[in-house]
Amino acid sequence: MKIFLISIFSILLLSCSTNKKVTVNKLDKIDFVLAFGSCNRTDLPNLLWDDILNTQPDVWVWGGDNIYADTDDMEALRTIYTTQKKNKEYKKLIENVEIIGTWDDHDYGLNDGGVEFEAKVESQQEFLNFMNVPMDSPLRKQEGVYSSKKYDLEKGSINIIVLDTRYFRTSITLDTETDKRVKPNEYGVGTVLGEIQWAWLEKQLNQSNSDFNIIVSSVQFLSNEHGFEAWGNFPHEVDRLEKLISSSKAKGVVILSGDRHISEFSQKQIDGMNYPLIDFTSSGLTHAYKGFTGEPNPYRVGNVVFTESFGTLEFDFSSKKVDFKIIGDHGMVLQKLEQNYE
User: Fold this and answer.
1) What tens digit of pLDDT does each residue of 137-151 get?
2) 120-130 helix and 74-86 helix, angle to the nearest 10 degrees
3) Which domains does the chain have, with CATH numbers?
4) Does the predicted model carry a pTM greater than 0.70?
């Protein structure tokens, strides 16, 4: 399989599993556009919503840290969510585009938090309110915000699988020996998803007949050496997901991630898969790691983007091709990747 990467610059959910018939009319053989992003502060300029709308997305996917609250005070959390929903440009997105997604630690409520966060039940309800999830939705009674949404189009279908990497995630190990924040747990110790969510995810992939299966993870999956939060801190969970993706034979699996205040493409060839697994990280919408000077990522393709940006995936069902784009202010394409899934 050939991959074509063009580096433009070297610097720089929710609903239950349902089917939705989508009618789209895209140019240049684009059948469906998914736009996504993460790391969005309400107290900083929201500069990218007009650019996001200009990509004519069929769905916007929040990748986490949709607001910054870091609180167990639900009134304070609700106030910040309300501020975001009142943003003039974001309101246009709400009015024109379906919105799904997940959370990460700063909108979950506890920095680097997981299963131990005592206000997670209440916080989940505020998140669902922000996402305009109906009060009678089963998600209101479910533990965790994981969900899936299938989009049936004339030429094929896309299944978006939204994970919750916070509600069940057990303790991470602080690194007291180097200048990194955390280090991997001992193999077999801890979980990212918890067994209930794992069973649900296995069913999603094993039973999927979609042409593309997009997995949304708030934290990076492939990049594993930077010393911050990532699936790599639970190496046995990484192995488990890779084996599941391969054994399920689910088509066109892609991982979307956020969290890092940088955007980049990572890819890895997994045993049993005839295409590389791509982890597309898009972060952040309002603030980026502008002091970035480099970090190891054995799976990186191209360059790290460290200015404000969002991501898009443009699907062409006829050729089974996806164009991945990192896009900045004024619609500037900062980097792109093309992958065929035949």
Assistant:
1) 999 999 999 999 999
2) 20
3) 3-317+324-340 (3.60.21.70)
4) yes
